[in-house]
Amino acid sequence: MQVLHIDSSILGDASISRQLSQAIVSQLQQKHKDTLQVEYLDLATQPIPHLTAEILMGQDAEQAALGEAILQQYLRADIIVVGAAMYNFGLPSTLKAWIDRISVAGRSFKYTENGPIGLAGDKKVYIASSRGGIYGEQSPVDFQEAFLKTVFNFTGVSDIQVIRAEGVNMGDASKQQALETAHQMISAL
């Protein structure tokens, strides 16, 4: 079973989303013992260049090769674990750059006369979400979790679980409660 573990927070060891994503991967490794292979992608230390017209039109051979490698890594994964911190109501721009490389017409989705169809296959996605404030599940200012769910659904992945720690910048008690709740969810995986 192939796991693609992606971290995008710029906060290094101080990152809550990184802590949660690693805990998810560790829990999966315990559950699946020797059958799990993990590929790790750290978008903060190895950022993917943002999409340009040249990249989009395939006019940059180096970036085309990188894009193909990223797409293949996504397509072959059975499980995706994404560490995603909320920055200014959205996600890190490096994670958006990764999304731009996996959202490829004819490869991870296609358009039909009845609308788009995802082609990425049967996968499980875990989103390790961290938020400084409290926004809840259906917040009108959530351009983080809702966006990620939309992208994965668009590529044909509908088995998505969010493990959320929010309110982590609202004092020690709030942070501690958020982490306890998130770790309880991870233990139940």
Summed up, what is this model?
The protein is α/β, with parallel strands linked by helices. The protein is 39% helix and 23% strand. It has a single domain, classed as Flavodoxin domain (Rossmann fold, 3-Layer(aba) Sandwich).
Number of domains: 1
Count, helices: 6
Placed side by side, the strands forming the largest sheet appear as: 2-1-3-6-7
Uncertain spans = none
Mean pLDDT value: 95
Encode the helix/strand succession as letters. Answer: EHEHHEHEEEHEH
Kindly provide the radius of gyration, computed on alpha-carbon positions and rounded to a whole number of angstroms: 17 Å
Please explain how this structure is put together.
There is one protein chain. The protein has about 190 residues and is of the alpha/beta class. The chain has one domain (about 1-185): Rossmann fold (3-Layer(aba) Sandwich), CATH 3.40.50. It has six helices and seven strands, in the order βαβααβαβββαβα. It has helices at about 15-30, 55, 60-75, 95-100, 145-155, 170-185, and strands spanning about 1-5, 35-40, 80-85, 110, 115-120, 125-130, 160-165. A five-stranded parallel β-sheet has the order 2-1-3-6-7, sandwiched between helices. A two-stranded antiparallel sheet has the order 4-5. The longest helix is centred in the N-terminal third of the chain and has 17 residues, at about 15-30.
